[in-house]
Amino acid sequence: MNTVTINGKEYQIPKVDFEAICELEENGVYLLNMDQKNPKLATMIRGLVAWIMGVSSEEASQEIQSHIQNGGDLVGIMTSVTQAVQNSGFFRRSGDTNTEEKVTEMPQNREQRRKQNRNNTRH
Q1: How far apart are CA 15 and CA 21, in angstroms?
Q2: How many structural domains are present in the chain?
Q3: Rounded distance, CA 119 to CA 76, Å?
Q4: Model confidence pLDDT, tens digit, residues 70-98
């Protein structure tokens, strides 16, 4: 599974499936239109981070701000997410014979991920 480091913490990028695409759209991220110019790049990155971390947009903005202030950049976040999208089974053609990405369990919903990520980041 793909991971990304945001503000010094490593997060697993959730599986990109139909539910994930819908959740991302609710956060202002339109993966199905990524080939078109998106003038709201910052909003898209914030939405991706909120989805990955399982937090609100406001909390994602705070983490991104701290990430940048602590010497991080946005390129690593975008690269990790792009790789996760490219590796997802959702965007493969139906004729693709690669079956490594078969879904064997139900994806977690956003609330479950929020609780899990909050528990993982508390020490």
Answers
A1: 10
A2: 1
A3: 24
A4: 999 999 888 888 888 888 877 665 444 44
**DSSP tag of 32:** G
Walking along the chain (123 residues) 10 residues at a time, the average pLDDT comes out as: 90 90 86 67 90 94 96 90 82 49 47 70 58
**Residue 72 CB-density burial (10 A; 0-12 exposed, 13-18 middle, 19+ buried):** middle
Say how far apart CA 97 and CA 80 lie, in whole Å.
25
Q: What is the pTM of this model?
A: 0.69
Which DSSP state fits 28?
T
Give me the domain span that covers residue 57: 3-92
Token pair for 69: 């202030």
